[in-house]
Amino acid sequence: MEKENFVLIEGKKVAIEGERNLLELIRKAGFNITTFCYQPELEIYGACRLCLVEVEGMGVVASCCVAPRAGMNVRINTDEIRRLRRVNLELLLASGNHNCTLCSKSGRCKLQSLAQEMGITEIRFKAKQKETHRDTTSAALVRDNSKCILCGNCVRICNEIQGIGAIDFAFRGYRAQIATAFNKDMGLSQECVSCGQCARVCPTGALTPNSQEIEDVFKAINHPTKKVAVHIAPAVRVGLGEIFGLPQGKSIDGKIAAALRLLGFDYVYDTAFAADLTIVEEATEFLQRFTQGKNLPQLTSCCPAWVNYVEKFTPEFIPNLSTARSPMQMMGPVIKADFVEKGGKREDLVVVAIMPCSAKKGEVKREEFYVDGNPDTDHVVTTVGLARMIKEAGIDFANLKDEEFDHPFGTKTGAGVIFGASGGVMEAALRFAVAELDPKGKGKLDLSALRANSTVKEAELKVAGKTVRVAVVSGLRNARKLLDDIKAGKNKYDFIEVMSCQGGCVAGAGQPQFEGWQARKNRAKGLYDDDAKLDYKSQDNKDVMALYGTIFDKIGGHKAHELLHTHYFDRKDRTGQK
Amino acid sequence: MSDRFKPAAQILKEYNHDSAKLIPILQKVQDAYHFLPEDVMRYIANELGISPAKVFGVATFFAHFAITPKGKHIVRVCNGTACHVKGSASIIQAVKDKLKLKEGQDTTEDLLFTLECVSCLGACGLAPVMVVDDVVHGQVTPAKAVELLDEVIKAEAK
């Protein structure tokens, strides 16, 4: 007869229930060992040697690399293991420039917190300090290889999840480092699409979203004559709270509105307003293409890293991209146009976008989003960056009373709010499109298939005698596979939503770091909870619809096209090809 | 395709565009181009369907590969244990002086010579050893080393 299916961990019986490795089982047992190179969604790497445990009969092993077997007797906190983990950590600390007080990751760094957990107060190994070289050439990301511990998380996520490989290990031995192709600065990388997922899984301050703009934002706020408008993306409201000890995923948009006013912003708006506007334009565009059977499948274009990807890797799909701008890049010109209409000067209004994203920082710097040298969006600050601003200003965030957003650009429907979750843009577009195709249609659509916690989803809808086939993918490798299948004729869709980050913007590089799927689920739930309390479809946003007839003549009209649509460039590398 | 990439294209064809053969491909490409130029590595990556960063990683991992231009003539001076004991340091210095190589520079401005200090050539009985364009010379002295270089320079001048 088989042995009972359990492992003994520090004398405690723990059942094996399909865990992929011993580390998962140990964590399930309640021992939350801090490690660096283990990421549940990535391949096992076994580099950091901090998950060491002792298994009877096997000796000391890296628990992430060992499959659990019935009858194993595992020890975690023996003198030997404690000593080995400490040596390994000290070696990592000695190998780089870990000057915590001057690091943007301080307080959120795993290396730092593990050194605290182990009570390390001195490093016994003296190593040649690596020279600090802060690469700030990318608008999206800052890289400092002297803080890198070579855990390889960034390399693996860029390869395995994004299918890009913009960075890899280069050189050897002590000189080994993470490098872009030909060791170029990040800003010059032909491959990087700025999605920032590398920074999301970086345990130290080696790769972080670029936060330099925070200074410019404070300066604008304190400027004697300039007005500053701010708007927050959907995912921010379900991401920020956990930094201040509030429940993960709970929407706290009211507190954020209050905090933004205390920070001194003159107008406090909601990007979800512009998301409704995006839906009006993008879904209208889809209905036209769908009726004419032209440039299908339509691909969403609100994710800037995805747009970069299409331009750099699959430019043959540029005609399929929706020409509708992202909500952020609709919001900027609309607020500025309104400001000018009311007698202001365009350059006297500074527009700040709070985004869960690193790629958004690059998006605003695209040439086509400037008018006479003035950008449509002046600055982008990440969710984590906003937390820093709130802390620096000394605001007691957790105890703030809820406040309303300013109108009209703070008005939103649920359709605009769910933009932050994978599947949300598609659901919002379908809510609009179905209501247009079938004005007498009843109630709400059942699109639960698009809300599943999966990175590839599809649905089929029958509307007014027609069948609409849609797909939702997140993670660029998944997106590439879908495009390849379409090219090969294996699959056919009418409309595809792509988000670069698995799970959507809630899992963006600008959000508080997390591991595994639970954080994504919690945050997406926060958005759908908000959605349930708001109007259903973007047509219901009266302030959006009022723009048509004032700033814009009509949906899809000339002025709307100028301010709300964009164009793309083929930026594929064809070295050596014809 | 411009002529520049034709040798690389030929080598890729020989290896059936098999990305698992990256190392032998790079070896042949280095033979053809004398080093691994950036645009050629990029071309190889695109053709093999792997990322240029991966190709760069392999090219920088192995000491055999050069990512900066190499000279027409390769001079290898052994600095393994036996050669070191028999005075290879003075040979290296003599070659550097003769070729006017600055600190950290291993290829001459005119791309005629590249000096490589290698760790063992397996000819310890002949120590100290210097190899000029694959011809092994044993029991080299600093004066002999300069003489060997002069021979190459003279031949080139013709």
Give the C-alpha Rg of chain A: 25 Å
SSE string of chain B, helix = H, strand = E?
A: HHHHEHHEEEH
The domain count of chain B comes to 2
Q: Quick one: CATH superfamily of the largest domain in chain B?
A: Glutaredoxin
* Gyration radius of chain B, in Å: 18 Å
Query: What is the rounded distance between the termini of chain B?
Result: 35 Å
- Poorly predicted regions of chain B: none
Q: Helix/strand-derived class of chain B?
A: alpha+beta
For the residues shown, what is the average pLDDT of chain A? 95
What is the molecular shape of chain A? globular
Spatial shape of chain B: elongated
Oligomer: heterodimer
Q: What is the CATH topology of the largest domain in chain B?
A: Glutaredoxin
Percent in strands of chain B: 5-15%
How many beta strands in the DSSP annotation of chain B?
A: 4
Mind explaining what this structure looks like?
The complex is a heterodimer of chains A (578) and B (158). Chain A has 578 residues and is α/β, with parallel strands linked by helices. Chain A has three domains: 6-89, Ubiquitin-like (UB roll) (Roll), CATH 3.10.20; 95-210, Alpha-Beta Plaits, CATH 3.30.70.20; 216-564, Fe-only Hydrogenase (Larger Subunit), Chain L, domain 3, CATH 3.40.950. Chain A has 19 helices and 20 strands. In chain A, the strands form six sheets. In chain A, strands 2-1-5-3-4 form a five-stranded mixed sheet, sandwiched between helices. In chain A, strands 12-11-14-17 form a four-stranded parallel sheet, sandwiched between helices. In chain A, β1 and β2 form a beta hairpin. Chain A starts with 5 loop residues before the first strand and ends in a 14-residue tail after the last helix. Chain B contains seven helices and four strands, in the order ααααβααβββα. Chain B is an alpha+beta fold and 158 residues long. Chain B is elongated, with a radius of gyration of 18 Å. Classes of the chains: A alpha/beta (578), B alpha+beta (158). Chain A binds chain B through residues 159, 164-172, 179-183, 190-191, 573-578, and chain B through 1-2, 4-5, 8-9, 38-43, 45-47, 50-57, 60-62, 67.
